Amino acid sequence: IALLVWLRRRLGWARLGRPLLAAWWLLCAAGAWAVWAAHTDRAGMVPGPELQARVLGVGDKAPSQHGPGGAMVFLQSPAWP
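Above: the chain sequence. Below: its structure as tokens.
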């Protein structure tokens, strides 16, 4: 920050503004590209094993202060004893 203050006093905002704006734009573009690259990187992803479950029952859940309610499904799976 001290360097920016010194440059502003030495060069003025008119000469310092455009390079700072360009640097800020490049930094934002690099960050956006990094987020996009991480989002689209699916090369290392492999599907997991297919899970099978048996529906034991379905019940109603009444609305409360913590949630809107709905259906409660009871499952049995070999993966979850």
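Strands lie at 54-61, 70-76.
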